[in-house]
Amino acid sequence: MKFVVSSTALLNVLQTSSKVVSNKNTLPILDNFLFDLHDGVLKVTASDLETTLVGSLPVESTEQEGVIAAPVKLMLDSLKEFSEQPLTIEANESTWEIRISWKTGQLTIPGTSGLSYPTSPEIAADAKQEIVSGADMLLAGINKTIFATADDELRPVMNGVYVNIEPETVTFVATDAHKLVKYAAAAETGTAASFILPKKPANLLRGMLGKEEEDIRMEFDDKNVVFYLKNHTLICRLIEGNYPNYNAVIPSNNPNKVLVDRVELLNGIRRVAVCSNQSTNLIKLEIEPGVINLTAQDLDFSVSAQESLTCDYEGEAIAIGFKSTFLIEILSNIETQNVSLELADSTRAGVFKPVYDEAPGADTLMLLMPMMINA
User: Fold this and answer.
1) d(CA 326, CA 337)
2) Tens digits of residue pLDDT in 80-95
3) In whole angstroms, what is the distance from residue 119 CA to residue 117 CA?
4) How far is CA 102 from CA 2, 8, 160, in A?
5) Which one of 24, 176, 181, 188 has the largest count of C-beta atoms within 10 Å of its C-beta?
6) What pLDDT digit, counting tens, does each position of 302-316 carry?
């Protein structure tokens, strides 16, 4: 294998692909990138067996095609030191030595045969489904929900983002049993299906979708999903199992409605939460017409804090407790100036919704379970 390639272009592909590589690989070969040069295009594959990312890069010239596995850390450490310039990369297929040459020097690093690199899983033809999604919609769905995913070994289905596809809507849901986020966007899919996307590939997509200008094609069956991006293909194993019935936990009849400035409420919670109990992070909201009283205390250290904020409120006076860290997470992931909080009583979940000046193209709902307020 011998080819010439731009140092910056190669480094960009390697840095993106390297995010897949695990620190605890079960197979030594997975500590390598797989370089596959064919028809003037270099394909760089990185995998941890669960998730595989394939980056494509046109090379400037090709003398000899081939396949080789190159060590991830050495390749990245070497290429980081180059300014933009053409590099000649040559791999000896008898010794598997990789030589990188440039105008004023060269370096050699040990590679290995790529024959033992695991092949990427393929989508079953008889169960394959396909949709095309806007990159912005997919990015928004992941951004809105991924913070609410769980880290629960006993309930793995809650460790990912649930994607529910309907003919005219795509809904993204995440929950950790304390908080729940549901983001529904209008989309002409023409099909009905669902899958649970694990957290790691969801985070990888987040990092790549911001640079995508065209629509993203997705293919999936009941075990794997493939995302086709402009210069990358992401293949990942889905989380198998039945996602909880999230609609059943969203309270539908909430007579008490609060409209409040989101930034003021968020900053007030941050100030008051400093004095909350370190183990529970409990903060109490006492809501009555025109005012929200925030209080927190830690009797062990004799500290307490209180703040009053103005609001618009419809309903009876109510006192409800929430975990301050979850409240801050939810309010930080809403982008509008004002937020609506809907409550039934102090024992049922609070429903947070962004308040838009104009009708939005998507519907966002965030739910937070209350905590008991000790008298």
Assistant:
1) 19
2) 999 999 999 999 989 9
3) 6
4) 13, 13, 44
5) 181
6) 999 999 999 999 999
49: left (phi over 0), alpha (psi -120 to 50) or beta: left
Which residues of the chain are in CATH 3.10.150.10 domains? Answer: 2-110, 129-244, 250-368
Topology (CATH level 3) of domain 2-110: DNA Polymerase III; Chain A, domain 2 (3.10.150)
**Do 217 and 225 form a contact (C-beta atoms < 8 A)?**
no
In CATH terms, 250-368 corresponds, of 3.40.50.2020, 3.10.150.10, 3.40.50.12780, 3.30.365.10, to 3.10.150.10
Residue 375 has pLDDT above 70, yes or no: no
Check if CATH label 3.10.150.10 holds for domain 129-244.
yes
Q: What is the pTM of this model?
A: 0.91
- Binned at pLDDT 50, 70 and 90, residue 152 comes out as confident
The Cα 205–Cα 327 span in angstroms is 26
